[in-house]
Amino acid sequence: ITTRPMEQGDNCPGYWWSEQMKYYFIMFAEPRRIDLDRLQLSTEACVLRGFVK
Fold first, then answer.
1. 0.70 exceeded by pTM
2. Is residue 4 in a domain?
3. What is the C-alpha to C-alpha distance for residues 33 and 48, in angstroms, rounded to an integer?
4. What is the dihedral of CA 46, 24, 22, 13, to 10 degrees?
5. What's the structural domain count of the chain?
């Protein structure tokens, strides 16, 4: 059973915006904030030391 007219829900979680914007800032900010060749970003945009090759 649905109501008419259908309503759109806001299904985008709030943490998505904070994590996404953090990634963009870290990757595209000038001057570079971190060395992306040596450091890596976790899924929550935390800076981690890269694996030794």
1. no
2. no
3. 13
4. -110
5. 1
